[in-house]
Design a protein that fits this description.
The protein is an alpha+beta fold and 666 residues long.
């Protein structure tokens, strides 16, 4: 008997069991289930496999013409090997054997994987009084995850569940929620009418008795309305009702022995009979992870009758899904960029130093001077202590606001720049002296083992200070006016009109006549009195003015890392401009096939490129070019013979045309 017929016979023998079991009562039936050690069947999705076979069968050509390395034409057709003659004969017949494989190759696309399998419940395990609970567990890398459960509920089992809820709801409805229901209101009314006529009259005249009125009645009669109500309350009935409230949890457990579960359930269906096997098609989508090569699915389950577990099923053999990812093709070769290193380096910063009107002396306690001067001192220390750079000179340029004449402002700015240069020149000298005082001793040992002491010296270059005036800072004033939200559009237009005056002194005089001038002088002019520092440095030990070197292309390598982590949108952000093989992988993974094809067709036809082209041609239903590129890849690198089984597009070609069955083709 063929293997195919043997499998069918085995399945038929299982299907015969229900005819024997259905004649038994529930007690005997569960005993038979235990003796047979029955369990649900975890199988690959037959629908998916049938669809795959349909795609393999559908082709536009019976015969393809490809070329080998020598340029000779080779014919490839849909064919199978004849068992008697050993020859390959054309055929369109598909093998219809029952699928019993425990593994399947699945492709990762868009960073996700769809795992499809079936939970098959034999009729012999179904009973109207039972609930079958199945728990799929997923194992990947070092982690395990329980997937959403599948419940199959018998009709009588569900009726008992619903009956339990009905009894519990009836119990809840018997609980009285209105506390006045225990009060004899008629007696309360008679008591008030006889003993508190004023209060009774107010109640009759108005539906509301104010707190002041109630307080006056209480002080007058010594009675509170709440006391009257408590006196005429049926305490026995109230306490009984309170006990019923406290016993809600107990009664829920008594009536609802098997609660209807709504969370963590993929399916909860009610079977009305057990005439045949029950099949649930389960699909689980997961995100890919680095190093994820396979996923195992294992099924376990229990049988419940009412609130009792009467049978625990054995865990099934695992279904294994081997994951193919295009990230395996990533070219991790490091990419470098040409980089020109200049010997001369410059840096700059600006600070705002407040000066007294018409003066150039620095007062550290004035305005924000202490903070600004401290910031510049820290910058100088960092540059002086830098191990790669050495300072040559510092250019200090001061700017002024437009008050006064242009000539006077230029002279004042130059004096202020010189004052700042003297201030920081003195600071650098003090810093150099303090460092030298703290120099330590260096200990060395000579060849005879004797210790020798020497003082470590820190060399400080002579730093040249240059000061100059930048004059009135009209450029910054225009920028501040344009960005100021408190000035009206008409004020801004007026200011821009005055800027057309070329003489700065006349321009300033014209601004003084404007109503917004005071705002400019008090709020914007102080920000124009800046001091700019330009630091000129050179790289230590570097003789040539420029050196051409290479540095690692960090952006490209981030894209490669994102590809390996299967973060394809992020990878494409980094790799889009490079248009190389890794860029094509990102495009293919995101299903941007036209963009990937445009890149790959311009690259050298390596085995990797040919394989990717075969995959893209297959997606475009161009079997001729797809088979040619795939065979070219396999001829140069035999690993692609096996890789082709992992990608659905290539696997379809292999099965459709019987590829890799003849060594001469490769």
């Amino acid at each position: 008997m063929s293997r195919k017929h043997g499998i069918i016979t085995c399945l038929v023998s299982v299907a015969v069991i229900p005819a024997f079991l259905l004649s038994c009562g529930p007690g005997k039936k569960i005993e038979a289930v235990r003796q047979q050690e029955l369990s649900a069947i975890l199988a690959l999705s037959r629908n998916e496999i049938q669809e795959e076979r349909r795609v393999i069968a559908e082709t536009r050509r019976d015969t393809l013409t490809v070329h080998d390395f020598d340029g000779r034409k080779v014919l490839i057709m849909k064919a199978v090997r004849d068992d008697e003659t050993g020859e390959m004969v054309a055929t369109d017949v598909l093998d219809a054997a029952v699928v019993t494989a425990r593994f399947r190759n699945v492709a990762e696309r868009h960073g996700r994987i769809d795992l499809r399998f079936e939970v098959i419940v034999p009729a012999s395990m179904q009973d109207s009084k039972w609930q079958l609970r199945f728990y799929p567990d997923m194992f990947m890398l070092e982690d395990s995850l329980r997937l959403e459960s599948v419940f199959i509920t018998g009709e009588d089992y569900r009726k008992k569940q619903i009956r339990g809820y009905e009894l519990y709801n009836r119990y809840l409805s018997s609980i009285i929620t209105d506390s006045l229901a225990f009060v004899n209101l008629r007696n309360v009314e008679i008591f008030i009418q006889r003993n508190l006529p004023d209060l009774y009259r107010f109640k009759c005249d108005s539906t509301v008795v104010t707190e002041e009125q109630a307080a006056s009645f209480e002080s007058r009669w010594g009675l509170h309305e709440k006391e009257i109500i408590e006196h005429y309350t049926n305490r026995f009935a109230w306490r009984y009702n309170e006990r019923k409230k406290e016993r809600r949890g107990v009664m829920y457990a008594r009536y609802v022995k098997a609660p209807i579960v709504t969370e963590g359930i993929r399916l909860d269906t009610v079977l009305r009979n057990s005439d045949g096997d029950f099949v649930y098609h389960y699909t689980q989508t997961i995100k890919t992870r680095p190093r994820l090569r396979k996923v195992d699915i294992v099924l376990s389950g229990d049988i419940y009758e009412a609130d009792r577990k009467i049978y625990a099923m054995q865990r099934s053999a695992p279904l294994t899904f081997y994951i193919s990812s295009l990230s395996a093709f990533v070219d991790g070769t490091q990419r470098y960029l040409s980089h020109i290193v200049e010997r001369q380096v410059s840096a700059n910063t600006a600070c705002y130093v407040d000066f007294e009107t018409g003066k150039a002396d620095i007062n550290p306690d004035m305005g924000h001077n202490r903070t600004e001067l401290g910031r510049i001192r820290r910058n100088l220390c960092e540059l002086l202590d830098n191990q790669q750079l050495e300072m040559d000179s510092i250019v200090i340029a001061a700017s002024a606001s437009p008050e006064g004449t242009e000539k006077a402002n230029d002279a004042l700015s130059e004096k202020r720049a010189g004052s700042v240069a003297d201030y920081f020149g003195q600071y650098i000298r003090q810093y150099r002296d303090s460092v030298r005082r703290l120099e330590g001793l260096a200990v060395t040992v000579d060849e005879m083992g004797r210790e020798r002491y020497s003082r470590q010296k820190t060399s400080f270059p002579d730093i040249r200070f240059r000061s100059r005036s930048n004059g009135e800072n009209w450029d910054m004033l225009s920028l501040l006016v344009d960005q100021d939200s408190l000035l009206s559009p008409s004020d801004v237009r007026s200011y821009m009109r005055h800027l057309q005056e070329e003489d700065p002194d006349r321009r300033e005089a014209a601004l003084q006549t404007e109503p917004y001038y005071r705002y400019l002088r008090e709020n914007l002019y102080p920000r124009l009195r800046t001091v700019r520092f330009d630091f000129y440095l050179h790289r230590k030990g570097m003789v040539k003015d420029t050196v051409h070197t290479t540095v690692l292309d960090s952006a490209y390598m981030k894209g490669v890392a994102a590809l390996r982590d299967r973060d394809y949108p992020k990878a494409l952000e980094y790799l889009r401009e490079y248009k190389d093989f890794n860029t094509a992988i990102a495009y293919v993974s995101l299903d941007y096939n036209a963009s990937a094809m445009a890149i790959l067709q311009k690259l050298e036809r390596t085995p990797q490129v040919n394989y990717m082209l075969a995959l893209l041609y297959a997606r475009n239903e161009d079997d001729q070019n797809a088979v040619q590129c795939y065979l070219d890849a396999c001829r140069e690198d035999r690993s692609y013979v096996f890789r082709g089984n992992l990608d659905p597009e290539i696997y379809t070609l292999i099965k459709r045309y019987g590829l890799n069955t003849n060594e001469e083709e490769i």
